[in-house]
Write a structure and sequence with these properties.
Helix content: 25-40%
Strand content: 5-15%
Shape: globular
Distance between the termini: 67 Å
Strand order of the largest sheet: 2-1-3-4-5
Oligomer: single chain
Low-confidence stretches: 307-401
Radius of gyration: 23 Å
């Protein structure tokens, strides 16, 4: 029997030439951007169809099959829950690539399937690179299909619970665990955590990178949105990057000049008008933007009502800061030498000092002669978020104590 494919992207090639009976890209939820769905909404989406489900709104998982259902031999079972539907197949293949949206969808589904052992026995996981898109290339690459075991399920469940937690602390903690069962997940978590506001500039990685590109002469939005390797951030797509750019240009103290003013009043779902406005824009940095690029200014200090982007948004969660009260932040600390950690940091007044050290308190096993690293980071009362940079910590060497 031809397999069922659950995937991070949908291509007609999956059901062409008898490759699969059906391919589903469950795209109803966006786990990277915007308010996150409730557990009840997730359960209802994957559960059996009820009168409350809307075909027009695609609120049931089966609404994402499109015209494929006409050829599917299992179409009469489409009102079942996803887990029960999968049991109509000998093999269910999970095709997920390196994008954060795809990896979050993968851990969501694996966490869901963990409660259905009969379905788990049918699962096969394929890790797919974006270069493999197009089945004419799959024949050459032949991405391996591996069984889904308890290790994959446990890793996915831990990651899913961390991602759904109220603050990013659980995701930082997850980075210190063994995530090898899902090889693409760790880098995705790092990339997404980098999108939290920086302690020095108040901006996430994508926002900061767009400012740096504008500073180097990339004045057109197409370059900012689509030159992914040059931008070197991979979490957000074109629409999300557009929203971030508007936040940089249309705040109380803008960092970017030249973005078309019609974007202030154009509806979010008017994609054609917004695309034309983006194309008319010719961007440059304000003096304030230049100071941010030089790490001399903090964007959030002058734009205090700005919401956090991505998973932990200010309009979604009342407490998104890494800490429970202004002036006191609690963030995880990673040893930059061996990756081990036990000690977080505690702020002192409004200028915390982060002490990074291993479980033993020394790095002798990692690098002789170094016992403790100290990283200074700015914090202030009322700050909405703190992101210790995972790549650019300023490390100061101290004598052993």
């Amino acid at each position: 029997m031809k397999p069922l494919i659950l995937t991070g992207w949908l291509m007609p090639d999956f059901t062409r030439d008898d490759f699969a009976d059906l391919a589903l890209d469950l795209a109803f939820f966006d786990f990277v951007w915007g308010p996150q769905p409730s557990p009840d909404a997730l359960a209802a989406h994957l559960g059996p169809r009820t009168p409350s489900h809307s075909h027009e709104g695609a609120t049931h998982w089966s609404d994402w099959g499109g015209g494929q259902w006409k050829q599917s031999k299992s179409r009469k079972y489409r009102d079942l829950s996803l887990a029960e539907f999968c049991q109509q197949y000998e093999t269910v293949e999970l095709w997920f690539d390196v994008r954060p949206k795809a990896q979050l969808k993968l851990i969501w589904l694996l966490d869901y399937f963990r409660s259905y052992p009969e379905t788990v026995g049918r699962l096969k996981l394929r890790l797919v690179d974006l270069e493999m898109i197009g089945l004419e290339k799959f024949g050459r690459w032949d991405p391996p299909a591996v069984d889904v075991t308890e290790k994959e399920l446990a890793t996915a469940s831990a990651a899913w619970q961390a991602w759904r937690s109220p603050t990013p602390l659980a995701c930082f903690d997850l980075l210190r665990t063994d995530l090898s069962a899902l090889p693409l997940l760790k880098q995705v978590l790092v990339d997404m955590l980098e999108e939290l506001p920086s302690a020095s500039t108040g901006l996430g990685a994508s926002e900061m990178r767009m400012l740096e590109m504008i500073a180097r002469g990339y004045s057109l939005t197409n370059a900012l949105f689509h030159l992914r390797q040059l931008r070197h951030t991979y979490v957000f797509g074109e629409f999300e990057l557009g929203n971030l750019l508007e936040g940089l240009a249309h705040g109380p103290m803008p960092a970017v000049a030249g973005l078309d003013d019609e974007l202030r009043t154009t509806r979010r779902d008017n994609y054609r008008a917004r695309d034309e406005a983006y194309k008319r824009s010719e961007l440059s940095l304000t003096e304030f933007g230049k100071a941010i690029v030089a790490h001399k200014e903090d964007f959030s200090r002058h734009n205090p009502n700005r919401s956090l982007v991505g998973r932990h948004q200010a309009h979604q969660r009342s407490s998104v800061a890494m800490g429970s009260s202004p002036g006191r932040a609690v963030a995880p600390s990673l040893c930059r030498v061996c990756g081990d950690s036990r000690d977080g940091f505690r702020s002192r007044s409004t200028h915390p000092v982060v002490l990074l050290r291993c479980h033993s308190g020394a790095h002798r096993r990692c690098e002789p002669g170094i016992s403790r690293f100290r990283v200074r980071a700015k914090a202030r009362p009322g700050m909405t978020g703190f992101r210790p940079s995972l790549r650019r910590l300023r490390v100061v060497r101290h004598r052993r104590t």
